[in-house]
Amino acid sequence: MKICSICKKISGTESDHLDCLEKRRIELEDGGLKEKLVEKLDLDKDPNNIGKEIKALLGHLNREKETKT
Fold first, then answer.
1. Taking a C-beta distance cutoff of 8 angstroms, is the pair 41, 51 a contact?
2. What is the distance of C-alpha 54 from the center of its chain?
3. pLDDT score at 41
4. pLDDT averaged over 10-residue windows placed end to end, the chain, 69 residues
5. For the chain, what is the largest distance between any 2 Cα atoms, rounded to a whole number of angstroms?
6. For position 28, what pLDDT does the model report?
7. 11 in helix, strand or coil?
8. Which backbone phi and psi does 17 adopt, to 5 degrees?
9. Cα–Cα nearest to 41, from 56, 33, 32, 51
10. Between the CA of residue 29 and those of 6, 24, 43, 50, what are the distances in Å?
11. What is the number of alpha carbons within 13 Å of residue 31 lying toward its C-beta?
């Protein structure tokens, strides 16, 4: 038995829990995705200059939100 280094709970094996390892991997991938998204949209240069695809997506989401309320 060992203590999981991620969640700090007892692990029945001599390693970390598989679900804890998977959760950490997903969190690390999401962090990289967020950084790449900012680079692709060039939001660092001018946050008001977004592509027409993003504007269309935001418009669609706003219309959908208005119809639900």
1. yes
2. 18
3. 61
4. 89 89 83 65 60 78 75
5. 55
6. 79
7. strand
8. -65, 145
9. 51
10. 17, 9, 20, 24
11. 6
pLDDT at 65: 72
What are the C-alpha distances in Å from 64 to residues 3, 31, 34, 50?
47, 28, 25, 20
Residue located via tokens 């709970």 = 9
What is the chain's alpha carbon radius of gyration, rounded to the nearest angstrom? 20
Structure tokens at 22: 């998977």
Q: Specify whether the CB–CB gap between 4 and 20 falls below 8 A.
A: yes
Token duo for residue 15: 């390693």
Q: What is the token pair recorded at 49?
A: 């200059």
Residue 11: strand pairing partners = 2
Please answer whether residues 37 and 28 qualify as being in contact, where contact means their C-beta atoms are separated by less than 8 angstroms. no
